[in-house]
């Protein structure tokens, strides 16, 4: 196992009616900015629950954070923060709203030239407005990690800081019942790929991390399709298991002390930046190709994945690996997400643009060994056609 330090300070409030804890979690003297997206929280009752819980607080609101939040939209919040001396941010929504709130929180105390440099130049965050989150879409893990992804002019870039990790997160699975099938699928697939990025690397004998990861993958394989089937989709227990799996997938626990890949995500971000494809749908296209192109480097873990996650035990090594990749693709198809670039109308002639963008974003040495060069990323994209 590799050396690691691990601390997750986000206080999780999980279950029915937990939104009411906002009344005590946020200090009464705080000046709160409630940030949200395009309005789903107004039609599913979440907004009303938040308003009720904040009835004794002083609060303002900022809405319109779009999926794959943009710098231009997020910077508009700065005027409200200044005008009302905001000293607490409450994000109510999915990963985009929470990521957006993190950037707003960091930009509010940014001292340099342009807050975009937090992403473009990876300038460290030295201070941020404290924030909490009410999660409405289980997927990203943003509710209890320090990561954020923001887009400017088609450039989709990540930053990370413990200062933007939510102080608390409310996870009520009931609020996910209003999600469309597309968003449920996206969430399950995103969480699945987060686990894979931290698991399917090379073996360092991290038994705890491996078995946690395998348990989470199996939970998503079992519960994900149930959230799409008419007989089981309203089952709050199904939603609860998906929600907790997605949080656990990217709260730092399973990634501590093991190598991490993230090449699928970095290549996927270019597909979203250039062609506006949903985040999870870029992952379901890129991951099977990564598994195929990186078969030798990932051989031992692919065999472990085949055996422990998919119970594939017959055939020679290559057959078992191929079968595990096939089952992964079948799971994605069952979850109604694309597995090929051609499924989203992207062809060979688009690959040059994607490679150029990877290069301009410095994504030239990806993967757990830093050995996925642009030439190998090209192979992966070609494999995904
Ligand atoms: O904007 P509203 O009206 O709220 O609608 C949203 C949005 O249209 C809707 N929605 C959310 N909760 C709902 C709901 N609709 C009905 N009922 C509910 N309960 O769903 C749509 C998509 O929301 P979004 O927040 O964009 O989805 P997701 O949670 O998948 O977040 C995706 C973003 O997170 C980033 C992605 O790159 C992408 O920008 N990621 C963040 C990570 C992190 N912070 O650690 C890691 C991930 O790998 C990912 O990169
Ligand atoms: Zn993701």
Strand content: 5-15%
Under CATH, the topology of the largest domain can be stated as Dehydroquinate synthase-like, alpha domain
Q: Choose one word for the global shape.
A: globular
Helix content: 40-55%
Report the order of strands and helices.
Answer: EHEHHEHHEHHEEEEHHHHHHHHH
Strand count, sense and barrel status of the largest sheet are: 6 strands, parallel
Assembly type of the chains comes to single chain
Distance between the termini: 36 Å
Instruction: Give the CATH architecture of the largest domain.
Output: Up-down Bundle
Mean pLDDT over the residues: 97
Low-confidence stretches: none
Give the distinct bound molecules: 5,6-dihydroxy-NADP, zinc ion
Tell me the number of structural domains: 2
- The strand order across the widest sheet is 1-8-5-4-2-3
Question: How would you summarize what this structure contains?
Answer:
The chain is of the alpha/beta class. 45% of the residues lie in helices and 11% in strands. The structure holds 5,6-dihydroxy-NADP and zinc ion.
Would you mind describing this structure in some detail?
A hairpin with a 2-residue loop joins strand 6 and strand 7. The longest helix has 20 residues. The chain folds into two domains: 165 residues, Rossmann fold (3-Layer(aba) Sandwich); 204 residues, Dehydroquinate synthase-like, alpha domain, CATH 1.20.1090. It has 385 residues and is of the alpha/beta class. The strands form two sheets. The protein has a six-stranded parallel sheet, with helices on one face. The chain has a two-stranded antiparallel sheet with strand order 6-7. The structure holds 5,6-dihydroxy-NADP (NZQ) and zinc ion. The site of 5,6-dihydroxy-NADP has 35 residues, from helix 2, helix 6, strand 6 and helix 8. Keywords: Oxidoreductase. Belongs to the iron-containing alcohol dehydrogenase family. This is Iron-containing alcohol dehydrogenase. One of its GO terms (molecular function) is methylglyoxal reductase (NADPH) (acetol producing) activity.
């Amino acid at each position: 196992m590799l050396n690691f330090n691990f601390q997750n300070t986000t206080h999780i409030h999980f279950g029915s009616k937990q939104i009411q804890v906002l009344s005590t979690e946020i200090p009464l003297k705080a000046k709160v900015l409630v940030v949200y997206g395009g309005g789903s929280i107004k039609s599913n009752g979440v907004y009303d629950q938040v308003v009720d819980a904040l009835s004794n607080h002083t609060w303002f609101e900022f809405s319109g954070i779009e999926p794959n939040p943009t710098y231009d939209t997020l910077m508009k919040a700065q005027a409200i923060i200044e005008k009302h001396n905001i000293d607490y941010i409450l994000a109510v929504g999915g990963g985009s709203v929470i990521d957006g709130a993190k950037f707003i929180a960091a930009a509010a105390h940014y001292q340099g030239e342009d807050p975009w440099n937090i992403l473009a130049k990876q300038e460290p965050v030295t201070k941020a407005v404290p924030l909490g989150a009410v999660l409405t879409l289980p997927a990203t893990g943003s509710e209890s990690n320090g990561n954020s992804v923001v887009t400017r002019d088609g450039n989709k870039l990540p930053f990370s800081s413990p200062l933007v990790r939510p102080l608390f997160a409310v996870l009520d699975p009931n609020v996910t019942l209003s999600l469309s099938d597309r968003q449920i699928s996206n969430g399950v697939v995103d969480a699945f790929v987060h686990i894979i990025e931290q698991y399917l690397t090379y073996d360092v004998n991290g038994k705890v991390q491996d078995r946690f990861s395998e348990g989470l993958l199996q939970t998503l394989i079992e519960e994900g399709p149930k959230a799409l089937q008419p007989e089981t989709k309203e089952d709050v227990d199904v939603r609860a298991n998906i929600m907790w799996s997605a949080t656990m997938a990217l709260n730092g626990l399973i990634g501590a002390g093991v190598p991490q890949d993230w090449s699928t995500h970095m290549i996927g971000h270019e597909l979203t930046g250039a062609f506006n494809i949903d985040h999870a749908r870029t992952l379901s296209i890129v991951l099977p190709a990564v598994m195929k192109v990186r078969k030798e480097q990932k051989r031992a873990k692919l065999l472990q994945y085949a055996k422990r996650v998919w119970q594939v035990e017959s055939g020679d090594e290559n057959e078992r690996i191929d079968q595990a990749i096939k089952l992964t693709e079948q799971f994605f198809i069952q979850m109604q997400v694309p597995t090929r670039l051609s499924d989203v109308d992207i062809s060979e002639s688009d690959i040059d643009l994607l490679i150029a963008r990877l290069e301009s974003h410095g994504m030239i040495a990806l993967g757990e060994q830093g050995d996925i060069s642009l030439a190998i990323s090209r192979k992966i994209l070609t494999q995904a056609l």
